[in-house]
Amino acid sequence: MNRITVVVADDHHIVRQGLRTLFEAEEDCTVIGEEADGLKVVALVEQLRPDVLLLDVQMPGLNGLEITRQLGQRGGKTRVVILSMHANETYVLEALRHGAAGYILKDAPPEEMLEALRTVHAGRRYLSRALADRALDAYAQQAQAPSEDPYETLTTREREILQLAAESSSLAEIAARLSISPRTVETHRENLMRKLGLQSQTDLIRYALRRGIVPLEK
C-alpha cells in the first residue's frame, strides 16, 4: 500500500503533535515533516514533496494563503488543505482563490480530518462539513472571477514584507529573516503601502488584521 505522505504546518506544537498521532495511527498515512515558521514551509514542501500539506491559515512570518499561492506558482503536485478557526465565506473564497484543495475547521472531529486528507489526495476538493450548506462549486467559480483587489497587485516579496511588518518586525529584523538589505526592505515597504493606499504603520497593521494576514490577538 502506498501511504499518503503529509507535512503539517502549524505554529502550535500541540496541534502538530495531535495531527501526527492521528495520521500515523492509520495504515495509509504517514507524517514526513512539520513546520512552525511560515517562511520555511515552501522550502520544506519543495524538499520533501508530500502528497498533502495540512496548513494553518494564520502562520507567523508568512500566512497560509500566501504559502498556498506560492506553492501553486511553483507547479508542484502537493495538495493543500487549509486549517482554520474561521467559518466565514471570505476565508473560504480566499483559500480557494489561492489554490487550496480543501478547507477544514480546526474543531472538526478526527474522522473528518482523515476524510479531508483522503479526499484531496484522491484529486477532489474538500469543504468542512460545517460549511456544507454552501455549495463548493459556487465558491470555486467565485474564486476564479477576475479580481480588482489592490492586494493582488503585490509581488511575492511585498506580501512577505507586509506580513512581517504587520507583526511589528523592524526593517533590520525583516532584512535578516529574508536575507536582503534593510534598504531593499524599505523600498518594498514603500511600494506596497503606495499600492494599498496606506499612510502609516498603524494603517498597515489595521489592513493586515482586516485582511486576516495576522490574527486579531496580535
Task: Summarize the helices and strands and which ones pair or pack.
Blueprint: E1 4-9, H1 13-24, E2 29-35, H2 38-48, E3 52-56, H3 64-74, E4 79-84, H4 89-97, E5 102-105, H5 110-121, E6 126-127, H6 136-143, H7 156-166, H8 171-178, H9 182-196, H10 201-211
Parallel strand pairs: 1-2, 1-3, 3-4, 4-5, 5-6
Helix pairs in contact: 2-3, 4-6, 7-9, 7-10, 8-9
Q: What would a concise description of this structure say?
A:
The chain is built from 10 helices and 6 strands.
Outline the structure in words.
The protein has a 6-stranded parallel sheet with strand order 2-1-3-4-5-6, with helices on both faces. It has 10 helices and 6 strands, in the order βαβαβαβαβαβααααα. By secondary structure, it is an alpha/beta fold. α4 (89-97) packs across α6 and α7 packs across α9 (182-196). α1 links the parallel β1 and β2.
